[in-house]
Structure formats: C-alpha cells, structure tokens
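Appendix C. Worked example: dipeptidase E
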Amino acid sequence: MMTLKRHLLLISNSTLHGGGYLEHCQEHIQKFLGVQVKRVLFVPYALHDRDDYARTARQKFESLGYGLDSIHEAVDPVEAVQKSEAIFIGGGNTFRLLKALYDNGLIPAIRKRVFEDGIPYIGSSAGTNVATVSINTTNDMPIVYPPSLLALGLVAFNINPHYLDADVNSRHMGETREQRISQYHEEPDTPPVLGFREGCMLLVEGNKATLLGKTKARLFLRDKEPTEHEPGHDFSFLLDY
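Step 2, the predicted output written as structure tokens:
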C-alpha cells in the first residue's frame, strides 16, 4: 500500500461547552502543526461575515504562536493555497463553504497541497465535512447550492460532526441522527460514516488514523449495527475502505 503524505486533524466542533474558541483542541493543534509551520491559511467561507471570522481565528492562532492569513483577503485564492504552509477550514454552513470552494477553483488546489505536498490540514465542523467524500451527512440546511455534494475526498469515508444521541426523554417525534445516517446507507455505494460527538477529533498521518479527544465516536457501516469507539481507537482501516 502506497504511503500518502496527508496530515489531517479533523475536529467535530470549534467550541466545547464551558470553553472558548478552539480551546478544547488547542494542544492537539499545536502538536499537529509543530514548530515547522509559521503561518496558517484560514478559509472562512462557511460564515457570511468573513472579516469577523478571520479576526476570531487570527486571535486564537496568534495566541498559539502562529501567524494567520485569511484566504478571503487574497487577490488570488488558488495562489494563496499554493503558497500556504498549513490550511485551516472553519465551521459554519457546509453548503455555503463547499460552494465557495468550487466557485474559487480550490478543490484541486487543496487536494494537491495535501496529497502531493503534504501540508497540514485542519478542519472543524463544516471544515471537517468538506474533507470527506461528500457533504451528504452534514446537519446543515442547503441555503445555497454547490455544483456537487462531492467534497475534497481527503479520506474515503464521511463524518457527521456534532453527532447527537437520541434523548429517551424527548417528545420530539422526528428522526434521530442515527436514523438519518441509516437512511443515507440505504442508498447504494455509500461510504462509512463516523459520528463525532462534541469533543471528538481524528488525526490522520499518512495511512494511519487515530481517534482523539474527550468523547467516543460512533461508527456506521452499511448493513451493520453501529459500534462505539473510545479515544485512541485505530480507524486506519477506513482510509482505504
């Protein structure tokens, strides 16, 4: 099996209850980026107010010792990706994010930087969704329409960030998150889905994938019962599923 250069940190959520922006995962981010990376390219396309979003991200990354450039301020977004040392795509609306990635011609540019050049990629929430095969398992409303639901394909499976367990005391009669993922798997040729509860993250280094964070993840495979997995679990088999 060919070893890929990819380095990914895929995070379920930017803010964990009781903490600040990226506070729950900041040590993982610092360890992931190391001392080699000096500046991070931020992609704020998932939110409408990109200036404000960039200020929030810049403040956080500067506090961790990294400079931050926002792609929406670049004259040429593709060139910004080509020159980047690391990429961070933040959360918000996944459809808005993916449409902007397509509109700016960034899908092949980001794939090349990750797969061929091996630069670190960090995704949070929507930024994690677009790192997967498709955005079919996002929780977001389709407020805009990207040309395709196919995403960056940096891994061979999908993720459902902010996964919620069914509340046995709830009177809500709609589908649970598990039922919605099951409906997705009723369609042919659908990949595995990892349900990321708040606090979950996945570290991908080449052909190895390890669950990190504070909470369990729930794995959904077609025609199989879902399974629970603790932080530290090896999910490498999903990378070439």
